[in-house]
């Protein structure tokens, strides 16, 4: 089987790996992993049956496809460390690092052509309900693109995306789970205000959000038409909606997206 390497063993690397292991798409023994601290990647590798290796270079030496799952500030030094081996091994590099373009990665790697795939997943890949954007560089073969796409499709949905739209995707797909968790927590907290337990209120809010998201994905109606369908004339829902808008609900969402895009473009 193709060996898949991970440089970085944090939240996103683990979400992807756990998603694959849950479906059996990738065998644990085919995943190599290294990160900054042995006490971080070691126990995780042992718990899941992955192959821990001693350095980033060793990940590249042993894996055909290498996922870069480090923070943007660390990426430059990691690329400098592995660039020689990447050229020798003709590795496929898959970067999930936000705010760093394929051209910027290629620049650090130097003149030799490297197969690069830029992705932007979200944490819900861990439960195979993620959405991941993909953009390959011209050197990436169709075969490798589709191999990676197939791997990522088991984690939810994927969508090819022009690189110019990655910052927008970060807001709508990558960071948005946090926005939705925040919304659910706020709804649940309001339930606590009126006497529900936090656990009960969170379950109610989360189920309502999940059902609403599924409804939007299958319905022939637009979200606005669905809002109208819930809003009985003179009823409770329209009273709640108008109060939300008075507090600037839509503006707050758009501002969150603006701020996320601005931050991504500053990395
Ligand atoms: N979290 C999310 O929801 C999403 C994150 N991303 C992107 O994924 C990337 C990783 O994010 P996330 O997992 O949240 O971050 P974390 O902080 O959870 O993980 C970062 C990982 O990088 C490792 N690391 C640091 N320095 C090195 C090094 N020199 N060599 C090897 N590994 C190193 C850390 O090691 P150690 O554990 O040993 O300290 C850690 O495992 C980021 O670029 C982010 O933009 C993309 C989409 C969604
Ligand atoms: O917060 C971040 O920078 C990363 C990118 C998308 C989700 N988390």
TrEMBL record:
It is an enzyme of class 1 (oxidoreductase). Residues 3-98 form the Pyrroline-5-carboxylate reductase catalytic N-terminal domain. The gene is proC. Its main location: cytoplasm. It holds the Pfam family P5CR_dimer. It comes from Liquorilactobacillus capillatus DSM 19910. Belongs to the pyrroline-5-carboxylate reductase family. Residues 163-265 form the Pyrroline-5-carboxylate reductase dimerisation domain. Pathway: Amino-acid biosynthesis; L-proline biosynthesis; L-proline from L-glutamate 5-semialdehyde: step 1/1. NADP(+) binds at residues 7-12, 35, 69-72. The keyword Calcium does not apply. This is Pyrroline-5-carboxylate reductase. It catalyses: L-proline + NADP(+) = (S)-1-pyrroline-5-carboxylate + NADPH + 2 H(+); L-proline + NAD(+) = (S)-1-pyrroline-5-carboxylate + NADH + 2 H(+). It is found in: Cytoplasm. PROSITE patterns: P5CR. GO terms for biological process: L-proline biosynthetic process. SUPFAM superfamilies: 6-phosphogluconate dehydrogenase C-terminal domain-like, NAD(P)-binding Rossmann-fold domains. PANTHER family: PYRROLINE-5-CARBOXYLATE REDUCTASE (PTHR11645), PYRROLINE-5-CARBOXYLATE REDUCTASE 3 (PTHR11645:SF0). Keywords: Amino-acid biosynthesis, Cytoplasm, NADP, Oxidoreductase, Proline biosynthesis.
């Amino acid at each position: 089987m193709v060996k898949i390497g991970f440089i970085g063993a944090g939240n996103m690397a683990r979400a992807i790996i756990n998603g694959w292991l849950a479906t059996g798409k990738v065998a644990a023994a085919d995943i190599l992993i290294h990160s900054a601290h042995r006490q971080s990647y070691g126990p995780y590798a042992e718990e899941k049956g992955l192959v821990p290796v001693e350095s980033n270079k060793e990940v590249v030496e042993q894996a055909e496809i290498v996922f870069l799952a480090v923070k943007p500030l660390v990426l430059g030094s990691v690329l400098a460390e592995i660039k020689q081996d990447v050229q020798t091994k003709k590795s496929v590099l898959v970067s999930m690092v936000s705010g760093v373009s394929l051209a910027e990665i290629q620049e650090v790697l130097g003149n030799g052509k490297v197969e690069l795939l830029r992705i932007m997943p979200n944490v819900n890949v861990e439960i195979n309900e993620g959405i991941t954007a993909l953009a390959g560089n011209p050197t990436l073969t169709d075969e490798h693109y589709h191999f990676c796409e197939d791997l990522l499709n088991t984690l939810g949905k994927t969508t090819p995306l022009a690189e110019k739209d990655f910052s927008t995707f970060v807001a709508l797909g990558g960071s948005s789970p946090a926005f939705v968790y925040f919304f659910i927590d706020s709804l649940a907290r309001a339930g606590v205000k009126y006497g529900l337990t936090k656990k009960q209120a969170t379950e109610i809010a989360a189920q309502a959000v999940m059902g609403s998201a599924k409804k939007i994905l299958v319905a022939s109606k637009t979200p606005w038409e669905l809002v109208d369908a819930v809003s009985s004339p003179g009823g409770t829902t329209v009273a709640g909606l108008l109060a939300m808008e008075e507090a600037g609900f839509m503006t707050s969402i758009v501002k969150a997206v603006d701020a996320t895009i601005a931050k991504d473009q500053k990395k």
